[in-house]
Structure formats: C-alpha cells, structure tokens
C-alpha cells in the first residue's frame, strides 16, 4: 500500500488540502495505484474492469441522436478497436459491401434524418446532394435571392469586370501551396 499523509483532519490530497476520505488503492487487475471514487472501487479504469469480467459489460454497439439530428454510434470491430459512425452511412456500406467513396453521400429521401430504413436511403454524388438539400433549406439569417438567369449572368459579368475571379483563383492556388 502507498504511504499516505494521515492526520486527525483526514487524508491530504495532492495540493495539501485535508479533504480526502478514501485512501489510494491498488487495482485488482493491473496493480496500478489509483484514487477510488467510492469505497467499493476495485479497478483503476473501465478497461481493467472489462478485462476482469471477460467483457460482459462491454456493448458491441451503442447509438444516440447527435446535435444535427442524425443517429450516431460507437461500434467495436473484430480486431478490438472502436469506431464512431453515422448509422445511415454504416447501413449503406453494409448493403453495397464496400466503404463509401469520398464523393458519395447517403441521402434521406423523405428528409427525416433519423429515418434510416433502407427504402428511405439512397447514394448520390456530393455536389448533387448539396444542391438538393440547399433547395429545401430554410435560411435563418439574411435572404435567398430569387434571380432570373439574365440577372445571374449580369452579376457574373460584373464580378469578372472587377476581377473577383482572379482573387478567387489566387486564394485557391495559395491554398494548394502553389
């Protein structure tokens, strides 16, 4: 057992305050000295606890809804590593039996992000997916311009005239390192 500074006021913590009630313990699995949260603590970490009980507490997968409304989760792979995935992408990769390419997105046909039924999911190119979702987007700030094709063309020509396209090209080449 580790040597502890005990006095009539209690155990001293690392900063010298007398506010600890439990002494340091030795982990039953790995032998490491740890500071227990409760009197009954036997292990320094969940990893050690899972090793001792044969992994009976370890779930193969766990799912939750993230801030954006998608179902996301953690999955244990056969090699013992844990990965974090979005459920709709995980389902589609299982169906097509390969990982999704970088330019592929999984689209929810009915627009409901947590409806991951196979008939509601489809694979589309990233650019098309962006255009599709932006059409139905409700903008919180500012406004959406309803321009005719001729007005769009006139604006593009004005931008070229003031050389905005050169600024954009310079930014792209700078980002690419050239």
Can you give a write-up of this model?
- The strands form four sheets. A three-stranded antiparallel sheet has the order 5-6-7. A two-stranded antiparallel ribbon has the order 1-2.
- It is elongated and about 80 Å long.
- It folds into two domains: 1-58, no CATH class; 61-135, Homing Intron 3 (I-Ppo) Encoded Endonuclease, Chain A (Alpha-Beta Complex).
- The model has no long low-confidence stretch (mean pLDDT 83).
- The chain is 30% helix and 19% strand.
- It has helices at residues 46-52, 87-96, 126-135, 149-161, 164-176; strands spanning 6-7, 10-11, 25-26, 33-34, 61-65, 71-76, 82-86, 104-108, 121-125.
- It is an alpha+beta fold and 178 residues long.
Main attributes?
178 residues, Homing Intron 3 (I-Ppo) Encoded Endonuclease, Chain A, 2 domains, 3-stranded antiparallel beta sheet, two-stranded antiparallel ribbon, elongated
């Amino acid at each position: 057992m580790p040597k502890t500074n005990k006095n009539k006021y209690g155990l001293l913590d690392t900063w010298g305050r007398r506010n600890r009630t439990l002494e340091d313990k030795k982990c039953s699995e790995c032998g490491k000295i740890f500071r227990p949260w409760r009197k009954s603590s036997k292990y320094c970490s969940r990893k050690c606890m899972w090793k001792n009980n044969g992994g009976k507490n370890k779930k193969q997968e766990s799912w939750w809804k993230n801030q954006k409304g998608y179902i996301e989760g953690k999955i244990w792979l056969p090699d013992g590593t844990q990965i974090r995935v979005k459920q709709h992408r995980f389902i589609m990769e299982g169906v097509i039996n390969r990982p999704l390419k970088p330019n592929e997105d999984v689209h929810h046909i009915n627009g409901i992000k947590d409806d991951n039924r196979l008939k509601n999911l489809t694979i589309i190119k990233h650019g098309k997916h962006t255009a599709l979702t932006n059409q139905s987007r409700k903008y919180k700030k500012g406004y959406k311009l309803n321009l005719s094709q001729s007005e769009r063309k006139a604006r593009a020509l004005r931008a070229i005239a003031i050389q905005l396209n050169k600024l954009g090209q310079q930014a792209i080449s700078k980002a690419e390192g050239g």
